[in-house]
Amino acid sequence: MTARAGFAAAATPSGLKFHPGYLDRTRQEGLLAELLQIFAAAPLFTPRMPRSGRPFTVRMSNCGPLGWVSDESGYRYQPTHPVTGRPWPPMPAMLVAAWHDLAPDYPAPPEACLINFYGAGTKMGLHQDRDEEDFAAPVASLSLGDACLFRVGGHKRNDPTRSVRLSSGDAIVLGGDARLAFHGVDRIEPGTSTLLPEGGRINLTMRRVTRPAGGLLPPPALSGTSMP
C-alpha cells in the first residue's frame, strides 16, 4: 500500500509510527540551515561496503557524540569523521527536541544522527539497523527535500513489505516490535520539493547507540512474525 493515509492507518507492529507533516516549512528551513553548518564541519562522504569496498550510492555525514560509518573493515560507530579525523559536530537542539517528542517513552538522549543524502536515482536496499547496543531505543527519522518511496517489512529479509511515500517534513519511528524491521528506500521522486535548491533528499536518522547508565529498558520481543 503506497497511500500516505493508508500506511498510517493500517494495522502495523507496535512501535511503527508515521507522522506526516511533522515539520512545517519554517522548521524545515531552520533545520536545513543547521545542516549546512554541519556539512561545513563534517563534509558528506561516500561510505564503502564491508569487504568488497564497493561505494554506496548515498553520501553521508553525522552529528552527535557518535557517527555511523562503513568501510572494508565493517559497519561501526565512531566519534570522528572518517575523512577529516575531526569529532562530529554537536547535534542541533532541534533534533534532540524532536527525538524526545517522537520517542517520549525512552528516557535517554540520542547519541548519533546519521545524515543521508540521496540524489536522483539513488536508493537504499532493505536492511536492519542493528549496530547499536540497545535495541530498546527506537530509531527516529526526519525527511527533507524530494519525496521517496520508503519500504518496510518484518524481521526477515523475505517477509512481506508495505510502502509509504515520505515527503519533506515527514517523520517515521521504528520502535518496539518494529525496531528490527527490514526497511529501505526504493526510489527518490525528483522535483517534488523546493526545499533543497539543487534537489535531492536528506534523511536524518536519530539513534541511541549505547545502553543508558543505570540499566536497560526491556528489548523488543522478536516474534518472528512478518508485518501485514
Summarize the structure.
The protein has 228 residues and is an alpha+beta fold.
Summarize the topology.
Layout: H1 4-9, E1 16-19, H2 25-41, E2 59-63, E3 67-71, E4 74-78, H3 93-102, E5 112-118, E6 124-127, E7 139-145, E8 147-152, E9 162-166, E10 171-174, E11 183-189, E12 201-207
Antiparallel strand pairs: 1-10, 2-5, 3-4, 5-12, 6-11, 7-10, 7-12, 8-9, 8-11
Describe this structure in words.
This protein is an alpha+beta fold and 228 residues long. It has a single domain (4-41, 56-207), classed as Sandwich (Jelly Rolls). Helices cover 14% and strands 29% of the residues. The chain is built from 3 helices and 12 strands; from the N terminus they run H-E-H-E-E-E-H-E-E-E-E-E-E-E-E. It has helices at 4-9, 25-41, 93-102, and strands at residues 16-19, 59-63, 67-71, 74-78, 112-118, 124-127, 139-145, 147-152, 162-166, 171-174, 183-189, 201-207. The strands form 3 sheets. A 6-stranded antiparallel sheet has the order 1-10-7-12-5-2, covered by helices on one side. It has a 4-stranded antiparallel sheet with strand order 6-11-8-9. A hairpin with a 2-residue loop joins strand 3 and strand 4 (74-78). The chain is globular. It starts with a helix and ends in a 21-residue tail after the last strand. Mean pLDDT is 89; it is low at 1-6 and 216-228.
Shape: globular
What order do the helices and strands follow? HEHEEEHEEEEEEEE
Number of helices: 3
Q: How much β-strand is present in the residues? A: 25-35%
Write out the CATH superfamily name: Alpha-ketoglutarate-dependent dioxygenase AlkB-like
CATH topology: Jelly Rolls
Total number of beta strands: 12
Largest sheet: 6 strands, antiparallel
The average pLDDT score comes to 89
Structural class, judged by helices and strands? Answer: alpha+beta
Distance between the termini: 10 Å
What strand order characterises the main sheet?
1-10-7-12-5-2
How many independent structural domains?
1
CATH class: Mainly Beta
Determine the fraction of residues in helical runs and give it as a percent range: 10-25%
CATH architecture tag: Sandwich
List segments where confidence is low: pLDDT < 50 over at least 5 consecutive residues: 1-6, 216-228
Radius of gyration: 17 Å
